[in-house]
Amino acid sequence: VQLVESGGGSVQAGGSLRLTCVASGVTFSDYCVGWFRQAPGKEREGVAIVYTSGSTFYADSVKGRFTISRHKAKNAVYLEIKSLKPEDTAMYYCAAGGSWVTLDSKEYKSWGRGTQVTVS
After folding, report:
1. Which of 7, 32, 64, 78 is most buried, by CB atoms within 10 Å?
2. Coil, helix or strand for 106?
3. What angle do CA 85, 81, 51 make, to 5 degrees?
4. Which of 89, 1, 77 lies closest to 38, judged by CA?
């Protein structure tokens, strides 16, 4: 599975972004997809999952501000981030997993190269 993220950028606190992860070579909706982030000097943190059923799961730290969704026709998964905070600054990655995953990055088989989000 090849994954490509986009949509990152530099934004002011309080703003919003929509990150996009597009898959090629597979039907993305057959996979659970997670979004992760990694800030400099910190461990990679899982923030959201969308399951093959369409159900979603969020880390407590982002509930209410992050929304993960799929667009089956575009073979894409989105991560919408609202009310951005400086502490959201990180490289954001999407990853594809099997039929059931948690926010443990070790459970994911394929990763994109990331898109940078910087909040000032």
Report:
1. 32
2. helix
3. 135
4. 89
Residue 14 tokens read as 């309080």
Residue-level pLDDT, tens digit, the chain, 120 residues: 899 999 999 999 999 999 999 999 899 999 999 999 999 999 999 999 999 999 999 999 999 999 999 999 999 999 999 999 999 999 999 999 988 899 999 999 999 999 999 999
The DSSP string of 11-24 is: E-TT--EEEEEEEE
Closest CA to 109 of 99, 59, 118: 99
Rg (CA), the chain: 13
Q: Are 3 and 111 in contact (CB under 8 A)?
A: yes
Which amino acid does the sequence have at 118?
Answer: T
Q: In the numeric block, which tokens belong to residue 17?
A: 């972004």
